[in-house]
Amino acid sequence: MSVTREEVAKIASLARIRMAEGDLDKLVPEFNKILEWVEQLGEVDTSGVEPMTAVIPQKLRLRDDVVDADPLTAGGRRDDVLANAPVAEHGFYGVPKVIE
Amino acid sequence: MPTDANSLTDLGVREIRDGVAAGDFSAREVAEACNAAVASAEALNAFIVATPEKALEAANAVDAARAKGDALGPMAGVPIGMKDLFATKGVQTTAASHILEGFVPPYESTVSQKLWDAGAAMLGKLNMDQFAMGSSNETSYFGNVASPWRKAGSNAAMSPGGSSGGTSAAIAARLCPAATGTDTGGSIRQPAAFTGICGIKPTYGRCSRWGVVAFASSLDQAGPMARSVEDCAIMLGAMAGFDPKDSTSLDASVPDWFGNLDADLRGKRVGIPREYRMDGTDQAILDSWDMGAQWLRDAGAEIVEVSLPHTKYALPAYYIVAPAEASSNLARYDGVRYGLRDLPEGAGLQDMYAATRADGFGDEVKRRIMLGTYVLSAGFYDAYYTQAQKIRTLVQRDFEAAFEACDVILAPTTPTASFPLDSLNNDPLTMYLNDVFAVPASLAGLPAMSVPATLTAEGLPLGLQIVGPAMDEQGVLNAGLAIEQRAGFTARPDRWW
């Protein structure tokens, strides 16, 4: 299966990556070469094979259901959380206008 | 005992910590020697950020603890490099990307914290392939890393391997005795092989992923890189252990890998997988493999042929699974919470996302995010992603069957020795093939290590890979030790930097 230029542009849009026309020209053949190579997986008979979900079998743990179980990841750390934000105002993340 | 700075930088992890403990030299002297080595090696571009003051501070603490008669940790006085994938509190952490440039974590990753608690000191943050995506250290936003090794009679800059290329270059160039790496599909083992050093990827879940910038969460594993098997064993012991903050962390005790090192392999069976004898593999690699089998036989092991029938499908399956997970993990870089924001004049939220990600990610990272987005999209999910996960199950079953007949598997680490920088980066697919021998163990979550074997006729290092069953790092390290003792690999790069 090969993808068209329009399909690659659509994927870029889904991935929220702006692509210039020149970037698309380069990416389409590369993308198709990689896809053609992974197509060989279709040769393998996988009927009756379960897809892997965990590489080492283990149960998911639950932490104790208490407030601030781990002080490092609990609440009350607004300034730490915002410290690396490109724009932070009044204790919130700043973003461009969302609602017209 | 060595006292001058040059000989201090030649020492390994065990020699430094034992020498510091015995008072042969101070931790500060070692830190000063390593700081000077880092400062004089800018031509390698192995470090994104150097932290000499942090190294001295940690060394002073070790010297003070020793003076007081306090117990010293297993890495006490050992200066190390930290791959820039590990969050370090107060020190920029970028995963070698533009999108995280200037990000200063307010927290410390579990693995790095465990190393500091064990007495190690940080020399700086090591360069790498961007978001650990690459096999040559040519995808870093902060420039290529040059290997300290060159072909005999040539000045061409060679690849240190990737993604842990800053790590491998720094250790081979004697800037530090050891450093952290991470391995998603060969990123510890391939750079170790390219630079004539050792590196082990433990069983998936041994080392906490908390605070490690995520690439492909079901595959990412941290591990040590160093110049000897025993140094890897010591450092892995300091890095591993259960962490409630990582939901896939293994709740298992950490064995004394260093204390239990034993190169006597009598009664052990070493499997040689016949499917790894692939077209296109260098003759020098095949010869080193035969030599490795001979060394292990000499150590008392029995050599048996094993079969891993789905080997050829492991790499394409990896290039579906890993990009799929990456496309999901890297969705967090949106220009809102941390890192870069690109807000074109008059742009709305969606345009800001797209512009930020276009500017902030390198070409290889974009390629993998796009590939992952595609294979997870409606209509293609089953044909690509589900099929790849089924093949992952088959690859794991292959190993389980092989380990009925053998205790560890011996294989080459890479299909070629290092190559010149800029020689492969126009063809993603050729670059991906570098990890053809490394990826199967990653898909199956198994411990695997690379140990230096020999030099090619051109004077470049080659590594041998040992893969063990889940949880048997000891068996892997022991076979590695047996190879190390017989290979007698003492070659080191001639200084040009």
From TrEMBL, chain A:
A GO term, aspect molecular function: transferase activity
Catalytic activity, EC: 6.3.5.-
Gene3D superfamilies: Glu-tRNAGln amidotransferase C subunit, N-terminal domain
Keyword Magnesium (UniProt): no
GO biological process: glutaminyl-tRNAGln biosynthesis via transamidation; regulation of translational fidelity; translation
UniProt-listed InterPro entries: Asp/Glu-ADT_sf_sub_c, GatC
Function per UniProt: Allows the formation of correctly charged Asn-tRNA(Asn) or Gln-tRNA(Gln) through the transamidation of misacylated Asp-tRNA(Asn) or Glu-tRNA(Gln) in organisms which lack either or both of asparaginyl-tRNA or glutaminyl-tRNA synthetases. The reaction takes place in the presence of glutamine and ATP through an activated phospho-Asp-tRNA(Asn) or phospho-Glu-tRNA(Gln).
Oligomer status and interactors: Heterotrimer of A, B and C subunits.
Entry protein name: Aspartyl/glutamyl-tRNA(Asn/Gln) amidotransferase subunit C
Species assigned in the record: Aurantiacibacter luteus
TrEMBL record, chain B:
Molecular function per GO: ATP binding; glutaminyl-tRNA synthase (glutamine-hydrolyzing) activity; transferase activity
The EC number(s) this enzyme carries: 6.3.5.7
Reactions catalysed: L-glutamyl-tRNA(Gln) + L-glutamine + ATP + H2O = L-glutaminyl-tRNA(Gln) + L-glutamate + ADP + phosphate + H(+)
InterPro entries in alphabetical order: Amidase, Amidase_CS, Amidase_dom, AS_sf, GatA
Coiled-coil regions, chain positions: none
GO cellular component: glutamyl-tRNA(Gln) amidotransferase complex
Location of the Amidase domain: 30-477
Leading EC class: ligase
Active-site annotation: K83, S163, S187
Any one GO biological process: translation
Keywords tagged on the record: ATP-binding, Ligase, Nucleotide-binding, Protein biosynthesis, Transferase
Signal peptide residue numbers: none
Function: Allows the formation of correctly charged Gln-tRNA(Gln) through the transamidation of misacylated Glu-tRNA(Gln) in organisms which lack glutaminyl-tRNA synthetase. The reaction takes place in the presence of glutamine and ATP through an activated gamma-phospho-Glu-tRNA(Gln).
Family: Belongs to the amidase family. GatA subfamily.
Assembly: Heterotrimer of A, B and C subunits.
Descriptive protein name: Glutamyl-tRNA(Gln) amidotransferase subunit A
UniProt source species: Aurantiacibacter luteus
Lineage, opening ranks: Bacteria, Pseudomonadati, Pseudomonadota, Alphaproteobacteria, Sphingomonadales
